[in-house]
Amino acid sequence: MYDAMRRVLSLFRLRQNRPDPKAVNLLGLAAEQQAIFQLTVDPDKVKEPFRYMVCRGVHGKGVVLACRGPNRKFSKVWEKQEFPFRFLLQTETDAFPRLHKFQGRITQIHQDLTTITVAIPENIAILEQRRNIRLKLHRHHLPSLTVWGLAKPRSESQPQALEQCLLADLPGQSDAMLAFLKNISAGGMRLVLPRSLYAQREPWLEQGSRLLAKLTFPGQEPDQEQAYEFVAKINNAFIPDDIEARPEIGVQFLSARGQGLQGHWRDVRADGCLELLKLLQSYQLQYYWDLKKNLIMREESA
Predict the structure, then answer these.
(1) Do the Cβ atoms of 127 and 97 come closer than 8 Å?
(2) All CATH 2.30.110.10 domain ranges in the chain, comma separated
(3) Can you name the CATH fold of 2-126?
């Protein structure tokens, strides 16, 4: 009786110590694709809260991740500690890479201090990405942006007044635009305003206020520019007490017209603007491949 119970307990411990086959399979695919892994060092750190690494293979019960470049060495004190990891993986041909995450323990920091082995996790979660993912645009993709404030209707029964106020008129790919547009999605954008602009135009920037926004994204050639117009609403505003800090407003797109919309306004409150979604996804994929290429080139040169 005692021997039988011991065998059952041994099998139970063996199963507990065995890596999850699904996790092993996903990490094997990550190694084949030389996927980029993001290790969260400290999300509250202003400087370098993340480390980015290339997946180099799965060996035994661990996945090997390599990081190259200046100031990318790991501290030995991280050994045996757990950290959150994320990585993009394309599990189906012609499908957009999906984001995966797991909690992983660093089992070894290699002698070069730039390569680590992380224990195969018990499970890897596939994140259901927001359809309208928020994207921080690189400078060469920044659109020109013009925003008008629209007067509020006097009542629900009366039509919107035509009174308007120019709030911003910024050229694309400029320093001002880089600071102004915090992020954008197919369903809206987040704007960071100069304190002086907010003070001058505060009545037009209250929560619930309507905006008219025109964005023109650059193309390879002038005739390949993509322009969109949106009627939008200010959903939320963050006004910091620190007078040196800049106010932020969250803007939701209500209706749109532009590329492929044949000049007609279309309600986009439910799913966002599909045409803008496709453009932003193409940018996101390009950023991923650029990051991947740069990290691999660092690895090869080292």
Answers:
(1) no
(2) 2-126, 139-286
(3) Pnp Oxidase; Chain A (2.30.110)
CA distance 114 to 243: 42
Please check whether residue 234 is in contact with residue 254, taking contact to mean a CB–CB distance below 8 angstroms.
Answer: no
Strand residues in 19-163 grouped as ranges (E) = 36-40, 50-59, 62-66, 82-89, 98-109, 115-119, 125-126, 144-150
Average per-residue pLDDT for the chain: 84
Tens of pLDDT, residues 169-200? 999 999 999 999 999 999 999 999 999 999 99
Report the candidate in 143, 147, 139 with the shortest Cα–Cα distance to residue 198.
147
Q: Which residues contact 172 (CB under 8 A, 6 or more apart)?
A: 142, 143, 144, 145, 216, 217, 218
pLDDT 10s digits, 75-109: 889 999 999 999 988 877 656 678 899 999 999 99
pLDDT over 50 (residue 35):
yes
pLDDT tens digits, one per residue of 246-290: 999 999 999 998 765 566 899 999 989 988 988 998 898 888 888
Coil vs helix vs strand at 16? helix
How far apart, in whole angstroms, are the C-alpha atoms of residue 50 and residue 87? 12
H helices of the chain, in order, are 2-17, 21-32, 175-180, 195-201, 274-301
Q: In this structure, what DSSP letter does residue 113 have?
A: S
pLDDT of res. 133: 78
Higher pLDDT, 259 or 54: 54
CB 113 within 8 A of CB 78: no
The class that CATH gives domain 139-286 is mainly beta
Rounded Cα distance between 49 and 155, Å, is 48
- Tell me, what DSSP letter sits at residue 52? E
CA distance 163 to 165: 7
